[in-house]
Amino acid sequence: MTTDPAPTSGTEESLEQLGAANARTRKRRNIAIGVVAGLVVVGGAGAATAFAVNQPAPTPESEVTFAVQLLPDNLDIRTTTGAALDQLLIDNVYEGLVSRDASGTISPSLAKEWQVSDDGLTYTFTLNEGTTFSNGDALTSADVVWSLEDLIDNERADAKTLSSVESVRSDGDETVVVELKAPDPTLLYNLAGRAGLVLDQDAENDPQTSAVGSGPFLVEEFNAGDSVVLTRNADYWGEKAKIGTAVFQLFADNNAILNALNEGAVQFGAVDKNLQAQIADNDAFTLEEGFASDKYTLAFNNKAAPFTDVRVRQAVRAAIDHDAIVEALGGGNTLYGPIVASDPGYEDLSDVAPYDPDEAKALLAEAGYADGLSVTVTIPAFYASTGFGPILDLITSQLADVGITLNANQVEFPAWLNDVYTNHDYQLSIVDHAEARDFANWANPDYYFGYDNAQVQALWQQATTASDETVYAEKLSEAARIVSEDAAADWLVNPTTLVAVDKRLTGVSVDSTSSRLNVTAAAFDE
Amino acid sequence: MIRFLLGRAVLLVLGLGVASLLIFLALRVLPGDVAQVIGGTTATPEQVARIRESLGLNESPAAQYIAWVAGLLRGDLGTSLLTGVPIGDDLARRFEITLPLTLLALVIALAVALPLGTYSALRHDRPIGVAVGFGSQTLAAVPALWAGLLLILLFGRGVGLIGLLPTSGFPRSGWQDPLTALASLLLPALTIGLIEGAVLLRFVRSAALEALDQDYVRAGAARGLTRPQALARHGLPNVGLSIVSVSGLILAGLITGAVLIEALFNLPGVGRMLVDDVGSRDIAKVQSEVFFLTGIVLVIGALIDVAHRLIDPRQRERAVAA
């Protein structure tokens, strides 16, 4: 499309003159819209500037915003699973008989003390006096009994962690007696989790969108997909929270967390290690490394070829350089078995599956795959955009070095749940098993790993019915070695988290923050 | 004109009906279900079955469709399976962010495209005109995510060279503090506004170039008008119509396409809601949201048609002649 320049002075006219000429015309709509638009933008920018200058200190003394990467879809802790509910509500809004810190140490909560009978079958809890729910109801032993029975009888979320419980009864308003079928060294730990929470049996709220708990915070606002606002419970029976408001703000994007931290809109948040340079120079924050119970697991379908062959499984493990994964992630711990260092039963199993590409090739040849092997890994798509992205690339190239072609099949999480988790229709998968003390999966042949070893199941049985924690740990460690020697899976890495904490903020642990974020002791020094 | 309006309204209703059916059917082919998502990785098959039952997922597709459409006709978008929150409430809350965001972006796009597009057409054979044309082509090709990051590095408070504007989130109090709310939308609106503006600029430029070549503009020039005057008086009104159409389409595209930008700036808008809900298979919610968005696009299309008829006398005459 070409135009002959008309023989006028038009080409010399400036834009302003064009505007002036238009102003004289009746049909000036379009340009007028442009001018108005320009004014609006300039005005808006001006307003923003004014706003920026007049803005008060980024956070009021009493409000702290925590960046989280998962928020629950609803607040119904009895029906909906997922660590996001635990992270948000346990200890902050709901309380159990006992509580635990990130390292698993048990502490009193609703129960001020407890006794265990010599045979390990009877636990007697003595409740604190004067405890109340946020709706004003008194919290008595009847509520405790109802909560535990309702959970077990109706198979609520996590009910199976209390499968050793025979009965729960109250003995006066302040005493609760829990009888077990067999000794259970994990009972207190599990009672400190979701299964042990005490709810008000007379509460009439909608548990999906509100919560009646006995904890130091109340759910003030629940904005699904965006934020949850907790406010201090002024009538809390125990030591009251120090901050007035705790905001759990959801971030879907690692960059967005960094921007929010740098802007001062967030006081606490995990930082992607590969992006840490963007906040390292910010004097308002300290960067702290926290441990996590996450196990990035390369799951083998032990019931599907070629992973029914232990040599293939061992070959895959030998082909993967775990130190390189730690390096690619910018930190973390190598892991050669199903138990992380912070859990009972941990043992360094690096001798079981050292990095040895030649050995991997030999094993493959022995298994009949001398000419190579092509396998598919099914991975939830959102993992690829988080820490798994570089890991997937890395193991793809490491496996290629020994002749294994890895095809990545990225699927949405619900599809993963359906195909891999429920129907066991997969060869390999990469999943973050974030829960602490989740060895039970290896003793369950129906779990999606499809790992079926009678010896491991027997050891698990002995461990969970042991009369003390030492035996529990010993049996677990024995079982974990077998699982690793069987190459039931490959444990790629136990990542650590890097958390940016506002220097004025104290009292919040940076360990295991994705499974539990207790903000009761959080304090803000101005 | 009344007959035209009636006809257009019938077409709109038909379109909505077809859309509802297509949306309903399309979403049924997604693998995975919300009961499993609620049950998560620890639920037994029996627990998942119980959740399915309680959510009414075992009813026949026909019954589900009829129930949904009946609700829509009553103005009831339904309730989220996952959150238990009425979908209409959630949409309204999200639209408080997405609608102003897209309108602001459109205003920015127009503010860039109209003057610069016309100017570069008038100067199309000068270096400056060529430069604007080339610049707009480059800008139109920039990925929104990258542009957003760049703007944050330039203007983001706490991060940027000129730390001016907030880069993250939307005030929880909403528009109660309009300045804060507006400020939080400025950078994301600039990001998409500039890119869409570059696209629109190219459209305006070629439309204006074409107009410059038309006889009526030349005639105007021959009568002694300067070229810009002739373009403004006779050319732009004629191409203005198609600019309105394109702007309408861009607006519709902006509303449905705000996903990326809302994630980058952590804005809880419609785009992010849609992605989250698809991801968690909250089908009841997704179908109402998609239907609502489709409705907006269809309504914008209808309004453009009506605007054309009102603005352009030739279309009315043509209709009469036919």
Describe the structure.
The complex is a heterodimer of chains A (526) and B (322). Chain A is an alpha+beta fold. Chain A is 30% helix and 21% strand. Chain A is built from 15 helices and 20 strands. Chain A has a five-stranded mixed beta sheet. In chain A, helix 9 runs antiparallel to helix 12 (388-401) and helix 14 runs antiparallel to helix 15. With 322 residues, chain B is an all-alpha fold. At the A-B interface, helix 1, helix 2, strand 10, helix 6 and helix 13 of A face helix 2, helix 3, helix 5, helix 8 and helix 10 of B.
Rg of chain B (CA only): 24 Å
Distance between the termini of chain A: 66 Å
Average pLDDT figure of chain B: 85
Q: From the structure provided, what is the oligomeric state, counting identical versus distinct chains? A: heterodimer
Based on secondary structure, the structural category of chain A is alpha+beta
Low confidence ranges of chain B = none
Summarize the structure.
The complex is a heterodimer of chains A (526) and B (322). Chain A is built from 15 helices and 20 strands.
SSE layout and pairing:
The complex is a heterodimer of chains A (526) and B (322).
Chain A: H1 15-24, H2 29-54, E1 63-68, H3 83-89, E2 98-100, E3 106-108, E4 111-116, E5 122-127, H4 141-153, E6 165-170, E7 175-180, H5 187-191, E8 217-223, E9 227-232, E10 245-250, H6 254-263, E11 268-271, H7 277-280, E12 285-290, E13 295-300, H8 310-319, H9 322-329, H10 357-366, E14 373-380, H11 381-384, H12 388-401, E15 404-411, H13 413-422, E16 428-433, H14 454-464, H15 469-485, E17 489-493, E18 497-502, E19 505-506, E20 523-524
Parallel strand pairs in A: 1-10, 14-15, 14-16
Antiparallel strand pairs in A: 2-3, 4-5, 5-7, 6-7, 8-9, 9-10, 11-18, 12-18, 13-16, 13-17, 19-20
Chain B: H1 2-28, H2 34-39, H3 45-55, H4 61-73, H5 87-122, H6 127-140, H7 144-155, H8 178-212, H9 215-222, H10 227-256, H11 259-264, H12 270-279, H13 283-311, H14 313-321
Keywords:
heterodimer, A: 526 residues, alpha+beta, five-stranded mixed beta sheet, four-stranded mixed beta sheet, 15 helices, globular, disordered N terminus, B: 322 residues, mainly alpha, 14 helices, 0% strand
